[in-house]
Amino acid sequence: MPTIANTELNFEREPLSHPFGFKGGALTELWQVVAELKGESGKRGLGLGVQSVLWSDAALFTERAEAAGNCLMFLMTEYALREAGGRKFDSPPELLHELFPRVLDFGKQLTGRRDLRPTFALNALVAVDLAAWSLIARERGAGRFDDLLPPSCAAALRGRQEKLARIPLITYGTSQKEIQRLVEEGCFLLKVKIGADPDGDGDRRKMLDWDRERLSSLHEQLKEWKCPFTENGMIAFYLDANGRYDSKERLLALVDHADRIGVLDRIQLLEEPFPEEFAEDVSDVPLRIVADESAHTTEDAVRRIELGYGAIALKPIAKTLSMSLEVAAAAHERGVPCFCADLTVNPLMVEWNRNVAARLDPLPGLRVGVLETNGEQNYRNWEKMLSYHPRGDESWVWGESGFFPLNDDYYRTGGGIFDSAPHYESLVGRV
Prior knowledge:
Helix content: 25-40%
Radius of gyration: 20 Å
CATH architecture of the largest domain: Alpha-Beta Barrel
Order of helices and strands: EEEHHHHHEEHEHEHEEHEHEHEHHHEHH
Low-confidence stretches: none
Largest sheet: 7 strands, parallel
Strand content: 15-25%
Shape: globular
Distance between the termini: 27 Å
Number of helices: 16
CATH class of the largest domain: Alpha Beta
Mean pLDDT: 95
CATH superfamily of the largest domain: Enolase-like C-terminal domain
């Protein structure tokens, strides 16, 4: 049982190559957080985090300057490390459950928002949680991701995929040329952001019209493409509404449009169509509805499943690995599939997501496992960030023809999560 003797924290700002629009807003940069936990034994655990204020609490994002929102989340991470100092813990989930309520309460006081979303606190805790996993690995001498997994999630993560299909992100401004390039490269499941606010006036009717046109345009562009990795042989869509639809009636109007133009059976997933407080049953919507931001905790995920949600988007890199493993186990017990979605994280953080995705069964309707990663599309300095990855020249990092190949060396090394990362270590005083 390690005792946390000392902690360190730092961050660096990474600019995006263009405004990244979703939830009616847009990001221009993402803060990369580095946390370190040092045990009394002298062993150290390094954890990375990427802050996304817009994703984790859009209301807070819109009421403050972008940098101010990042400052608030960073202060919550700093508070978590102060709370972690001196604690003994048997496992990272145990540490997370001790810190999470404290950090959320602190965040509510700090921001002045009693309705601060729990995901904001979880996002702030990612670097701390991954540092705890890294420390545990070094304390135990673990060298494989499988060595870290608790027995409770063994059934949910029993797979061993030979490759993962890359899910790219189609934002509000992604051009037809870029979409064509992605499909020609081998991508066949496209994550499409819907729910735009085209005139910035909050008019949901205009949003629906925009989404209808977006679906029509995508269908027209890609309807002739064939794909051997989907059961219907077509390029597939994964729609992400980020809670922008205000009623089931409005959503069904979009579904009716999709059915009318012949694209309904190509929509494999529809993520978070409604705001979190929306608590109606969705089992009558003829699509697989995905819970993401609303599934903060295991209890939240179970509640969404009871409301008819048919899949859970796991985000070890956004809602902590500890919470994601517990959610995966609960979903598996109830026969609900999971997959790993991105938060536009750096290349080394992708490995934590990839390790989970590699062990999940393929989604219904697909013949291979999948992993969303969109950093290459959005970071201005992606190539430089690849140099911070200790195994950044491996094929599972770069991908081949829209896939990430996973060989024995990948499973033996965890893709690099156990290796030294000199760039990030230097940010917390190590060389």
